[in-house]
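Side project, low priority. Logging it here so it doesn't get lost.
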Amino acid sequence: MLIKLYHSFEAFVTSALRYNFVMPSEMIYLQGHVIDSLTLSKVLDVLSSYEGVEYKIQRAEIGHTRQEPSQVEILVSGETEEQLARVLEEVQQHGAQFSHSDARLETASQDGVFPEDFYSTTNLETFVRVEGQWVLVENIEMDTGIRVWQEAGQWRAETIPMARVHKGDRLVVGHEGLRVLPPQRRDPTSVFAFMGSDVSSEKPKENAVRGVAQEVRRAKQRGEKILFVGGPAIVHTGAGPYLEQLIRRGWIDVLFAGNALAAHDIESAMYGTSLGVSLELGSPVRHGHQHHIRAINRIRAAGSIQASVEQNLLKKGVMHACIEQKIPFVLAGSIRDDGPLPDVITDAIEAQEAMRSLVPGVGVAIMVATTLHSVATGNMLPASVSTFCVDSDADTVIKLSDRGSHQTFPIVTDCHFFMKELALYLIDVWKG
């Protein structure tokens, strides 16, 4: 009997030591619209996926109206400090907050290299705690570090890409002293909530395009910029004039593209072809395969796209509209580019920096028929930017979501249809 009691007591003590005294623990906090944004579900999925991790919901206050936030406190325990750190780092990506300790800062030991345990950012609004003060992280962007410095007696923080790190920069390491806000609640009455965010070609496309147009109008009313990211298929399919009119009517404020969209837009303006195919007849023309390279050569001779407009060499098209309307654009090059046009930025890091400089103030991003430029731009956008990715290939929009741009709404359709309908709703219907 005594032996049995001893073993029962031993098991009790072992259990108590494991779950209450030995296992490192941390209280995590969730606040906001954590139910309908699925933040709570995502956090619990993460906690459940780790063998040996225990958690207990200590407090849960669920908001009863669309304006009232919810608050949840969860005690998380891991078998080791290392395991707990991994768990906390992962749930933090979904907006979990921790104890109110200051962030740990380490100094970069060399240019272009983060400290080993650097904090890797999400695209969600983030704050860092320095000397007891919560400081907003400026220019939030995923997959970067956080640099902290003092300016005029005030602490400041910003995201910083790896390539821009300088020896001596103070960077956030670990997960302490960070607050990541969960995604904003989506309007359940919008067309996008009704259609869902799953990728499918079997959805009412006109409703989706109308919803995009409504978001554009709302962003404009708020004084925000509209970013358009486009691929050459826009020109190939004959949709270039729709994009041109959207730019001329003031619905596009920034353009990101590659050499191809600009080159074929200029080819179509000079020769009436795209990739040597007549945009009017839809059939190849004699020696048409030379048109794009001859168009590039003319612009290079002029010195720039703007110079070709000033010299009356380029008289219409998307790039002509950008020059006339003073719309800033970034043409980021690739290894396969012909020419390229003199305005194309061939250094990838320089192109990234040029794109980053134009992201602040963007409220809506529309990405059409370009996988690489869509993913690159998506990586730079805060989660607060309404993002629409349009492509006839579902893989493109899936790649964007998989990379962490969870705010992206996918539209699987032909780019000509999308551009035509968008121009209809923004220009013809509303007389923009």
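Brief comment: Residues 1-21 have pLDDT under 50 and may be disordered.
Revisit when time allows.
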